[in-house]
Amino acid sequence: MQPVFLLTDIFVYAILLFVLWYIWQVRSNRNLRANWRLAMKRPVAMVSIMVLGFFLLVALADSIHYRQVLPSAPSQAKQYSSEANSVLDQILQPLAAARERSYSEPLSAVAFRKETFERDGVSVRDYPRLRFGGQHLGKPEVQLSEDVSRRTVFALGWGACMVLVVFVLGLLMATISSRQNLAVVASKFINGQTEWPWRSMAITFTLMTMAICWVVFLSQGYHVFGTDRTGNSVLVFAMKSVRTALVIGGLTTLVVLPLALLLGVTAGYLRGWVDEVIQYVYTLLASIPDVLLIAASVLLLQVFIDKNQGVFETSLERADARLFFLCLILGITSFTGLCRLVRGETLKLRELEYIQSARAFGVSTPRVLWRHIIPNLMHLVLINTVMQFSSFVLAEAVLSYVGVGVDPKTASFGVMINTARAELAATPLVWWTLTTAFGFMFLIVLSANLLADAIRDAFDPRTRLRSASSSAAPTQEVAA
Amino acid sequence: MFRFLTRKLAYGFAILIGINLLTFVLFFKVNTPDDMARMQLGGKRVTPDAIEKWKAERGYDRPLFFNEKEQGIAQVSNTLFLDSSLRMFAFDFGRADSGRDIASEIVRRAGPSIALALPTFVVGLGVSIVLALGLAFFRATYLDFWGSVLCVVFMSISSLFFIVMGQFMFSRVLQLMPVSGFAPGIDAWRFLVLPIAVGILSRLGGEVRFNRTLFMEEIGKDYVRTARSKGLSESRVLLVHVLRNALIPILSASVAVIPLLFMGSLITESFFAIPGLGSYLIEAIAGQDFAIVRAMVFIGSFLYILGLILTDISYTLADPRIRLQ
Q: Which residue of A280, A413, A446 is in closest CB contact with B156?
């Protein structure tokens, strides 16, 4: 195997390192730790972290690319496949290989439309059997529902076993570490009186495990979310889209952060002509309607790619470069809001006494900025970053619809919705592609939004007092 | 006031010049007229003569920034940049690749755009204020809690979902109104009801939540406590005192948006096939017509700057504590 590092892969790893570094920072900083503790003690926050964590794992598995060794004679040099695969591709390989001819409904054994074909030497017009879905069934019309329910029960049983093992282990661990009676620990857990929201986490864990088990078990014999026009599994496409969505959200944030922070802080601290220039630049960028600037830039990129076909080796690299560029442009168009916010806050901070005294002591400007100003802006930056994340994910779908989003060959929710749009006009209705795309997107965006809310409540000094007092008095929390 | 306005206008003018330069560099320097001609004429087998002819028809055959063949001032003035920029500031945008005059096309298409955008904006603002006030009235109850949860849920739904579902439910299943299209005059309402409803719904969650926080902030202030201690009823406190004060930031923020309404809504218009400016732009993007895109960028920025100036003025009108400087 030969590892392949796509442009966005490298940045995904960079984001991961950055997050790890940040966690390390939080651990060594008492103030930050207290704030994060406050945020994480909310059940909503932990639940969204778990859901996002799952999608993050999927995205990470899809970010490790390699080329497989092609089978060749032992005397020859090793040959690598021309297309790069990811770990997720490898996992989903059986499903991706199980292609049908065209549309098929979720959990179905026959195709979606009638065709004329030969059966027992007679030409009939009926729904043809699928190549993969329900192939093991002798008479699908009778056996299908029984088989599906049998597999469902089996899957849920497996899931329940796994959940039970984790629960028992967890309770035992908690009993040992807290040196309390098992019954006490269990009753605290059931009544939700633990310090951390273990009960909500346990419910989420149960639901997620059950859902994943169900999908995994039924995928052995069926297309759980149906197939699209070309007969590809919708589930595979949706799973591949997760990475695109998260990359758009994460990478764009990575562009926005340094740009807004650097420009905003220097403008606010140095004042004078630097301030004027920076203000001019961000007013300029803000006054161009976002979609227009993005559209124009993506059009130019397309022209560039068409002119320089040789730069990218594979179509995957080409699509990846476009994704990367899209994040870059999206970041440039949307850094202005945070930049303005940071500038305003810096203007306020620089007049405070501790900054004045630091300056009087002769601390150099970069050091004042790094040690004294930026740490006091971080709550603003953090809140804004998490809140923007979900809007980027939503923006991708819209941009892909307009035709200036990701490459049409890249798996993404926008591409999915765009291709599925025509299907709504068809009768009978092809509902599953759209439903899957919107469902996945909704889950990601909703959990990101909820997490952003919890973080804002914990970090924003205006709301922090309120939430701190309410968590001190548990009865009040129940009432709210 | 006069000095303030002239300074703001001068700054806006400077921004417009910057935008003009930026778009020119993007569209003509990075993507040269040769590329455009090749793309429009199609394929790689275009003869150089055809490209020259295409460029000459549009006046793209002149140098970009500096004309060496001319003498004196014409060295700078007889160039593509200065000529097209000056025309742009006079709102003369030249011709689209299809041969139509862009300016008259924009005027023609502004009507449907406004017919869609203005009701969406006004009704949406009204509905969100009423709902937010309702949540603030029932604050710290289950109604408020679940209302806020619903807002987050609405915020998390892609606007595309509302469009797709709206078209599907009302046009195909219930057959109440046409799927898409447009008719001039009074008949237009049948085509507009659904896009307007969709437009309001897709923004409702975020707006209600935002307005609710404004109301809640206002409710915590001292004058509200005074009003309550005078013995005023809760509804009177909210409807008279809180509402009037909270409307200042809400309306001032809205003023900035009003000029941009002329630009129309990209997505809604193209989904519902309404021949407004939004769909014009989408067609231009799809057809890679840079003249139209550049003109639209210019108008969009112009309206944005207009909105900024209007916001400044409306702030001072609404709040006497703020002085123009």
A: A446
